[in-house]
Amino acid sequence: MIDCAQFYQYLLTKNIQFFCGVPDSLLKDFCAYITDHTPEHQHIINANEGNSIAIATGYYLATQNLPLVYMQNSGLGNAINPLTSLTDKEVYGIPMLLMIGWRGHPDTPDEPQHIKMGRINPALLKTLEIPYAVLPDTWNELDAVVSSLLQNAYTDSTPVALLIKTDTFSSYKLQKKIPQVNNGLNRETALSILVDYIDRQKMDNVVYIATTGKLSRELYEYRDAKNQSHEQDFLTVGSMGHASQIALGIAIAQPDKTVICLDGDGALLMHAGSLSTIGMLKPKNLIHIVFNNWSHDSVGGQPTAASQSNIALIAHATGYRKTLQITDKALLVNNLDRIINEKGPLLLEILVESGSRSNLGRPKTQPNENKTSFMKTLASKNK
User: Fold this and answer.
1) Cβ–Cβ under 8 Å, residues 221 and 209
2) What angle (nearest 5°) sits at the alpha carbon of residue 129, between those of residues 124 and 131?
3) DSSP of 281-333
4) Strand 68-72 and strand 19-21: pairing?
5) pLDDT of residue 346
6) How far, in Å, are 180, 195, 207 from residue 198 at the CA level?
7) If both were cysteines, with which of 35, 187, 197, 299 could 25 make a disulfide (CB 3.0 to 4.6 Å apart)?
8) What is the pTM of this model?
């Protein structure tokens, strides 16, 4: 394993002093070390990976120093446009070091949403003509590999990439105090209150679209605990930030449904422009619930920008008919009648504490099975 402190100091000797990106579970230890030891304006946690490529470009233009951009390989898709139309050596030629968590590595069991990207990751970098190497997990090989890549970046004015496999970095726990919600309400409790309320209303034709990460896992386990079917729930295991647009597509196609999107702050901010599309189309049957814990909870708890934002007010400004921010459990319980039964689009922002149960499981069904049962639900209730 590579010690986080040693690798950080090594990068400084290479004059890499600026870090930005979107957190990843394979990089969480190193990202935590960066957070603790980098000046505030030298480490930026961005809303999405494309933004990270852009801000790194600006940093290079202003300083002529190489920036480091970190991401999960699933986020490489968000970065492809600026990597091909901005930083590519045939356009502006902006050198930078990409650090990419290699989820779904062919030799490492992983979740279904990571398998395809894991398999094609090297081929995709080759197609993008981005020089890359796997970061060795021993110091004997590391310097030669990294030095060669960095030389390539400067010589050819191109991004280069390090692929990071599971357990490359040693454990490191974040020490820095970051903004946290402290209201005694966790996401799983808030979710159960919300779904219990909707069940008691006996609303017809209700379907749920849950965002990627722990929220989908908690909804799955809630159904199991209640001995309920999963057929009305679509669990968006990948495609971070797109759950609300899946919900919008269903709401438009089947206006007789009540479509409930269960979202998170990091996911929403990643593609915040989706709010304006919902606000413009104004589907009356769409309820957008955002569980806001100010963090990327599923990949290490790194902070999002949501602590500086009022998501309910943003949604109101984009055209949602009704929005409300809930700051504690009592407000949640007492205000469900006020918003759930009104015409949409509605947005309910619920502030919740970060973290989850240590024994939180994962769905026992495959994504294709979830899709098939969910589509049967839509079809049967649409007759």
Assistant:
1) no
2) 95
3) H--TTEEEEEEE-SEEGGGT-EE-GGGG--HHHHHHHHT-SEEEEE-SHHHHH
4) parallel
5) 96
6) 28, 5, 11
7) 299
8) 0.93
Strand partners of residue 161: 98, 132
Look at residues 265, 357, 363, 355 and name the one whose alpha carbon lies nearest to residue 310: 265
Within 8 A by CB and 6+ apart from 39, the residues are none
Structure tokens at 297: 């909870």
Instruction: Note whether 202 and 37 are within 8 A (CB).
Output: no
pLDDT tens, residue by residue, 15-55: 999 999 999 999 999 999 999 999 989 999 999 999 999 99
CB-count burial class (<10 Å; 0-12, 13-18, 19+) for 177: exposed
Buried b (16+ CB within 10 A) or exposed e, 129-164: ebebbbbbeeeeebeeebeebbebbeeeebbbbbbb
Is the pLDDT at 81 greater than 80, yes or no?
yes
Mean per-residue pLDDT, 204-212: 92
Distance CA 370, CA 347 (A): 26
Report how far residue 224's alpha carbon sits from residue 268's, in angstroms, rounded to the nearest whole number: 27
**Where is 339: in which H helix or E strand?**
helix 329-340
Instruction: Locate all alpha helices (DSSP H) within 86-172, ordered by sequence.
Output: 112-127, 139-156
Please give the torsion angle defined by the CA atoms of residues 234, 237, 241 and 243, in that order, rounded to the nearest 10 degrees.
Answer: 0
Q: Determine the residue type at 197.
A: Y
